[in-house]
Amino acid sequence: MLQHPRTLAMTGLLAAGFALGVTALTLKVADGSHSVLDTTLSTATGFLFLLAGAVAHVRRPANPIGVLIALAGVALFLEDLQFTRDPVLYTIAVPLRAASSPVIAHLVLAFPHGRLRSRWERLLVTGAYLVVFALGVVGLLVSDDPRDLLAIWTNPASGVFADRVLELAATAISAGVMVVLLYRWLTGQLPQRRLLSPVIAIALFGALASGTGTALGDGHSLSEPLLQVYRILFCLWPLAFLTGVLRARVGNAEMIRLLLERDGTGLAALVQDDEVWKDSRSIDALNAAAGLVLDNQRLTAELEQRLAEVRASRARLVAAGDEERRRLERDLHDGAQQRLVSVVLLLRMAGRRHGGQLPAEVRALLSGTVDELQTAIKELRELARGIRPAILTEAGLVAAVRSLADRIPMEVALSVGEVPRLDSAVEATAYFVASEALTNALKHAQTDSVDVRISLAGAELRVSVSDAGVGGASLDGGTGLAGLRDRVEALGGELTVTSGDSGTAVHAAIPLRT
Predict the structure, then answer these.
(1) By the 8 A CB rule, do 283 and 272 touch?
(2) Which H or E run includes 463?
(3) CA angle 269, 271, 275 (to 5 degrees)
(4) d(C-alpha 289, C-alpha 185), whole Å
(5) Cβ distance 206 to 230 under 8 Å?
(6) What is the largest CA-CA distance in the chain?
(7) How many Å apart are CA 428 and CA 235, to the nearest integer?
């Protein structure tokens, strides 16, 4: 707090205010024209303004209202310097004999955030300072007091007129301030009314007591008690300001710091709306709500990160599975299949060379063995092709789907756009979508034709297989389509199946991978 730029100004105001307070108390006591109660209340009011300003600054160093509260106390003590017998000090004090009026007007209009919010408020405060101090200088020039060193026209009537004009100006300023306060209270929301109510109540009752006491005149028995009530209420005013400042919400900088320092992490900043006031309880609730929002955002970010890790892990599993498929297909083709082919060739060679020497039963058995081995080779080729067709690895997706369509014993209308070689996992997934959809159509659709479309759309590969069969396909129930959906989603894509009386359509959208 000591490093805040307003702290030096506040320290100077407090030091000057304390010195002026002691001086003012001494002068009023020496003057002898003031009662003990009046002297006590005026001095206590000034020191209460200083104390309230200091506390407000300590609690809200970013809010300039504390400086204004303390400045009001200093201005009150400056007014009492006119009771000095020293001509020099009196000459300095005369223009300041109503110094508290514009300062308090400024304080009231800037309450509780220390800033004037409209052009009319700034005009009113500027006019108050100019009128009060200008009339003070005029009073100094026309004063008939012998202590006035700058008097150039010692006309008693002029001095009285200047005092009267100064009183009227102060009354007009007070009326303008009250109008602004009442307008704020009537148009404000509940938190704003709670802040303004003590200030307005004291101002209204004080004005009523002061005005009534003045109107009754000095000879009336109620005049002096009413004026004392006004002085007591005025003495309580700085406490009303302090209460409002402590209940008012913190300023922009403090609010931003409050949220940025939450849990020691820089997560977010909340900028307040100066048009809607909130008390400290609202700020506590706001901070709690903001904390929940930030915690929710943090958890959401963590969840999204974990989902991304899961997707990446699933994609790696798909890629590893495809690589294992390629290895199995290669091992079957280059290993077991070649060995079976060699056995068939050897048996045929043996039959040609020694067939005439063998009994008929042995020749028949040898021929049957060759046929069974050829059937086994065919089934092994189909198995290897189902694991991962060699043509898919060698020639790509389009060639593999064309080869698949040629083998299907039904009419396949294949429509293929410009599809280059893609990532191995993407090509394999698209191929198996087409293969599973064609197999299901052949087995269950009861139709003679199927449409297959493969195309690129932006950063996606799209595969569509549709028929006009009896329908009934579903992603539920542990079917092959459900497994394909998991495979497509593992690459960040989407598989949808639409099936009804008019047929079945399988659509897959697979993001391209680089």
Answers:
(1) no
(2) strand 460-467
(3) 165
(4) 27
(5) yes
(6) 161
(7) 87
